[in-house]
Amino acid sequence: MMKPPVSSQGSPSCRFLLPLLALLALGADACGAHTPEPVVTTQALPPVQPGELRAPEAFAGIADPPARSRALFLEASRVMLHARCVNCHPAGDSPHQRDDMAIHDPPVKRGPEDKGVVGLECTSCHQEKTPELARVPGAPKWHLAPKVMAWEGKSAAAICAQVKDPARNGGKSLHDIVEHSAHDKLVAWGWSPGAGRTPAPGTQERFGALVAAWVETGAACPTEAEAQEAKR
Amino acid sequence: MTTLVLRVNGTEHKLDVDPEMPLLWALRDIIGLTGTKYGCGQALCGACVVHLNGEAVRSCVTPVHRAEGGSVVTIEGLSPDGSHPLQRAWVELAVPQCGFCQAGQIMTAAALLSKKPRPSDSEIDESLAGNLCRCGTYTRIRAAVRKAAGIPT
């Protein structure tokens, strides 16, 4: 039996959790009509620290599959919206770096194939792993996500729609998305960035499990209201 | 230690080295090609740029094992007698001041011109954006690249 949080004024995770559950319970049509009171139910999720991810099992108490699916995606989106991921999913032509998502220095450009420009390709500097002393982040096939896959400035709701759209996800099926999330080596760098960088929350294994559970429950996308509430 | 085979400026070398050794170390300290410079050691300044299989790479962060079986060209190998159009333009326009960055600048520009023989100014700037010149000769560098490309300066 999961222990429900006791107050929406508690830890940051609780402030995230309770309004989210209330929104999920009320459904999208109720959003914006009034501010729902936080509802503590047995569906309450366990608290989570900023550097952790809840396991898919933590969402079992949400009986309604679409609501559970939306909640699972919101949890997975905590990885997608992390600086380790957004920095190389930029909306413009320059990647970002560091936790404050500053513009990449040197001022590199994405180039025609999202791999940099002639003479200053991503792999001119980025190796297959992070060198111990030079600290330049490294992983196999270092490159930017294409502009249609930009996450910078996007909500979890918008990213969800994007991730499901083959025209904006590199032609991937939902099965491909699960595989990419769980096993891609460049994605894996987000959890072992090296050189003192803040890793993405949780682990790649758990992230992959969340995405798989999201797909298994119908791959429902959170509403904008739910996404905004989850950010608070 | 591992024995690695790489071709540098057309000559095959067998090196008994730690495969994680920076390529720059192998070039300068083992093979003895000191034209490529050590600047920042973090891929931030571009002084150490060489070509690996035709791509400009920063040799200070490139592990030497990445070059195994591949072809490396350094500033010494760009032309047999310093006659590459970029080298001639560099001299004619008196580009360098201290000269420490010029090997990296020229090697990056050579990679650009090999794939874009007549680059625009913005393409020149974007390709060379990661090559720092602490003497501030950027306008002369761009002019020399244009001259080497046969673009009126």
The overall average pLDDT of chain A, rounded, is: 86
Structural class designation of chain A: mainly alpha
Dominant shape of chain A: globular
Q: What is the oligomer described by this structure?
A: heterodimer
Residue stretches of chain B low in confidence (pLDDT < 50, at least 5 long) are none
Question: What's a quick, concise take on this entry?
Answer:
The complex is a heterodimer of chains A (232) and B (153). Chain A has helices at residues 12-26, 65-80, 83-86, 122-125, 156-164, 174-183, 185-188, 204-216, 224-231; strands at 96-97, 102-103, 116-117, 120-121.
Structural commentary:
The complex is a heterodimer of chains A (232) and B (153). By secondary structure, chain A is mainly alpha-helical. Chain A has helices at residues 12-26, 65-80, 83-86, 122-125, 156-164, 174-183, 185-188, 204-216, 224-231; strands at 96-97, 102-103, 116-117, 120-121. Chain A has a two-stranded antiparallel sheet. In chain A, strands 3-4 form a two-stranded antiparallel ribbon. In chain A, strand 3 (116-117) and strand 4 form a beta hairpin. In chain A, helix 1 (12-26) packs antiparallel against helix 2 (65-80), helix 2 packs across helix 5 and helix 6 packs antiparallel against helix 8 (204-216). Chain A is globular and about 55 Å long. In chain A, 42% of the residues are buried. Residues 1-19 and 25-43 of chain A have low confidence and may be disordered. In chain B, strands 2-1-5-3-4 form a five-stranded mixed sheet, with helices on both faces. In chain B, 32% of the residues lie in helices and 16% in strands. Chain B has 153 residues and is an alpha+beta fold. The model of chain B has no long low-confidence stretch (mean pLDDT 97). Chain B has two domains: 2-77, Ubiquitin-like (UB roll) (Roll), CATH 3.10.20; 85-148, Orthogonal Bundle (DNA polymerase, domain 1), CATH 1.10.150. Chain B has helices spanning 23-31, 85-92, 102-115, 121-127, 138-148, and strands spanning 2-8, 11-17, 49-52, 55-58, 71-73. Classes of the chains: A mainly alpha (232), B alpha+beta (153). Chain A binds chain B through residues 105-109, 117-121, 123-125, 127-128, 131, 133-136, and chain B through 20, 22, 41-44, 46, 49, 55-58, 60-63, 66, 108-109, 111-112, 115-116, 123, 126-130.
